[in-house]
Amino acid sequence: PRIAILISGRGSNMLALIQAAEQAFFPAEIGLVLSNTPHAEGLAIAKAHHIPTHVEDHTLYKKNRQSHEEAIHAVLKQANIELVCLAGYMRMLSDYLVTQWEGKMLNIHPSLLPTFPGLNTHKRALEAGVKIHGCSVHLVTEIMDDGPILGQAAVPVLPDDTEKSLALRVLEQEHKLYPRVIKHFIERASAHPKGEFLLNG
Ligand code: GRF
């Protein structure tokens, strides 16, 4: 299937997926990288890997979240995208896009969900004093950083960790986890006779 990756910034998870898709083991191709801002550093990285990119600038849509998402949806359809992977996409999604891509939209989040949904996960993990932290890949539902968990990776929190050192340790795992989970997700889906992505199939 053709995957679109939605980004807003650095794009290191995007790069991990692009590099996975360049390997023979990966059962999908990256058909599009889409950003909600022209300032996402990841756009240049995608271009360097010859991946088509698109910017759908949310600031042009004033406060109309749905019309921004309708534009995104049209671009995804036009590019024959079958699976959407959020990778550091920092816009909240409304029910519109989530419903269109129900069961076919994944997100990576830098915590062991259901703990620490939302922002500043590493800071909050340090403040809470947890000894194990990590990252999660989950299906996207209407509730932010919720939805069925497809895979997780754990790391230790070390005594002299800073937000930065902990974030780096987790990020390294994110880059391994996301391609692996997507691969399993697609393989399980294609085992189904209709070739559809199933939530519990
Ligand atoms: C990652 O930590 C991801 O889990 C979170 O935002 C960060 C994006 O980093 N959703 P990058 O743009 O993939 O480098």
Automatic annotation (TrEMBL):
Name of the molecule in the record: Phosphoribosylglycinamide formyltransferase
Keyword Acetylation listed: no
GO terms for cellular component: cytosol
Gene it is expressed from: purN
Organism: Entomobacter blattae
Cited NCBIfam families: PurN (TIGR00639)
Gene Ontology annotations of biological process type: 'de novo' IMP biosynthetic process
Pfam families (alphabetical): Formyl_trans_N
Lineage: Bacteria, Pseudomonadati, Pseudomonadota, Alphaproteobacteria, Acetobacterales
Reaction catalysis annotation: N(1)-(5-phospho-beta-D-ribosyl)glycinamide + (6R)-10-formyltetrahydrofolate = N(2)-formyl-N(1)-(5-phospho-beta-D-ribosyl)glycinamide + (6S)-5,6,7,8-tetrahydrofolate + H(+)
Binding site for (6R)-10-formyltetrahydrofolate: 65, 107
Active-site annotation: 109
EC numbers, comma separated: 2.1.2.2
Protein family (similarity comment): Belongs to the GART family.
Record-linked InterPro entries: Formyl_transf_N (IPR002376), Formyl_transf_N_sf (IPR036477), GART (IPR004607), GART_AS (IPR001555)
Role, per record: Catalyzes the transfer of a formyl group from 10-formyltetrahydrofolate to 5-phospho-ribosyl-glycinamide (GAR), producing 5-phospho-ribosyl-N-formylglycinamide (FGAR) and tetrahydrofolate.
Binding site residues for N(1)-(5-phospho-beta-D-ribosyl)glycinamide: 11-13
Domain Formyl transferase N-terminal: 2-182
